[in-house]
Amino acid sequence: MAAVRGQPLQALGARELNARAQHNITPLKSTRRVNDENIQAVKENQQDPEQQKKERAKRKKEKLSALCKTPPSLIRTRTGKDYRRGLFLGEGGFARCFQIRDDSGTVYAAKTVAKASIKSDKTKTKLLSEIKIHKSMSHPNIVQFVDCFEDDVNVYILLEICPNQSLMDLLKKRKVLTEPEVRYFMTQIIGGIRYMHTRRVIHRDLKLGNIFFDPEMNLKIGDFGLAAVLRADTDRKYTICGTPNYIAPEVLTGKTVGHSYEVDVWSIGVMMYALLIGKPPFQSKDVSLIYERIKTNDYMFPEDKPISESAKQLIQDVLSTDPLKRPTLDELLDYDFFKGPFPERITVETLVSTPDYSDLDRGHSQVNFLNCKRNSGLIQSSHKNPVEILKTDLESEKPKAILPQSLSPGNTKNKYREVTDSAVRPRKYEEVPSKLGKARRLDDENNSKKRSSHQDIKLSDSILRNECTNTLNGMNLAEKHSRMRSIKSSTADLKTPILISKWVDYSNKHGFSYQLSTDDIGVLFNDGNTLLRINNKNSFWFITNDPSEGWLASEYKIGSIPTELSRQVEIADFFARYMKTNLCKVSNNEDSLIEHEEIFLRRYTRYELYVMFEMSNGSIQFNFRDHHKICISQTGSVITYISPERTSETCLLSTVLRDGRFPSVSNDIALQEKIELIKGALKEKMNQ
């Protein structure tokens, strides 16, 4: 959480952040339905001054945020944790926002909604849905939800504070932004949106005013007041909602066709255009004209605001009237626009002055782009559980309360933890010698099951982190040895590791199937369990991934398959036939076929530039997009290279780093870049 600790509230008053109602620096409801403040502005232009005055007074009286009473200076919660109210931050049509501080000095933004404004079940459901959706989000480019609670008058939503205002505020000060800045901002925004979409959430109100800067000038998407959860990826929504300048054409058709994830992609095009040109593409004082322009795709690139052809191409493709013709979020990042100058970071000076990126070369820009994507979660594949709105989330246990206990606990840290379905679990285990790498063999004859006394400890996650830590430490040690030329490392124990030789990713239905260089066949099912068929043996292993006890292995004879495992065996057999018929082996090296240990795949991760395989014996294999492959084994001390022609070579990592190449490889394989990618992936896994 990017909250500010140990600072007095007044410290946040810099750069006029706390002028009443001037800036919304934390998510607030603003324009909601299509017939709102913009329509009122048009009507006012047709009225005389006296009539305008009466209309404004009437709207002010009816404004829901006006019902929000200023919170007391000391806000007491039912859980015993109290907050002190600070300065007023701003208001929208639905809520008012204040700084508040807890006893430790941490400052938050408190979005305050008057209970008097929640007059119907529909309004209450809408608020609780917003809380549930926002609460379930955890991403570096989404405003962090902290907690929610209520008193007799208001409902309070605590959020991390974003003290550097919004993209809208930045555009108002700077008028237009540079393309390098826009590349950086769009990458972070795409990262946040992609995370939401993997959880089947559509934001539906993405606009410059709803995207905020944290203290380090990273962008954060906020305001989930119009967000919706899809029951399935093929589901559609039909409510006409959003902010006029940003509404996608399919939203305006209402119940005719419906809308889905593509509306958020459309908003990316509108925001990008606005940042580079200075205003949204369809802007007009007449709201109905805005909608007509959106439907007919009526916009142009002004000649006095020159932008690159690559930027124009991206905007034109994103602002396609047909949502199916818009590029996906992943496709967006492959456009030539993102190959231009890319800054390492954005500084606070950009809030008031135009930065100079003329000295950015292509090499540094590519590295900066890669790091920005990694920090925004765009390189690692996301397998998050979809958000689900439960009936219990919307029903309070107390007659006069708005928030149910499920949404307003005193400690939200461990709520809505993502869980996976449990599967067939073996019974009691005992430590016995086994060739199965780092999995405990189980005694299936015993009818009792041993349970860990620490059920909340995810031992398997801890093991994976430790393996990555040990491997990275080993690589760092090898790098140190490579600089100490007087030290000679022994190659006596140098062994060619067992590799993933073939694989099929069918995780959208069953799981991930693979064949090892030993010809063993495995399937890592979507529930985390593994079936491993050993080559030339009349048996198979079923390995359960128990979070509290690690990997627990049971061996079964082919002729006596338990009924509950028959489907898994059938799937494994199908994949085995498919790989044998259709796929080539990754390497022609047969060294690993000699008296080998039996290992299995613990975890795989698909990144944009490579696939990462973590094996049960600690070796980690990287299949790069350019068809080169590298395996790091023996606790980071040994490296194996497999060429696109399927020849392989195993060496001490220290020797390869010292020489800058493999002995038998003469062509440039971008070795150093690949080593840095591997180390970056290991660091990322260590911190998960």
From TrEMBL:
Binding site for ATP: K115
Residues annotated as domain POLO box: 499-581, 600-687
Keyword annotations from UniProtKB, A to Z: ATP-binding, Kinase, Nucleotide-binding, Repeat, Serine/threonine-protein kinase, Transferase
InterPro entries: Kinase-like_dom_sf (IPR011009), POLO_box_1 (IPR033701), POLO_box_2 (IPR033695), POLO_box_dom (IPR000959), POLO_box_dom_sf (IPR036947), Prot_kinase_dom (IPR000719), Protein_kinase_ATP_BS (IPR017441), Ser/Thr_kinase_AS (IPR008271)
Gene Ontology CC entries for this record: cytoplasm; kinetochore; nucleus; spindle pole; spindle pole body
Domain Protein kinase: 83-338
UniProt-annotated stretches for the region Disordered: 43-63, 400-457
Record flagged with keyword Cell wall biogenesis/degradation: no
EC number: 2.7.11.21
Family membership: Belongs to the protein kinase superfamily. Ser/Thr protein kinase family. CDC5/Polo subfamily.
Record's protein name: Serine/threonine-protein kinase
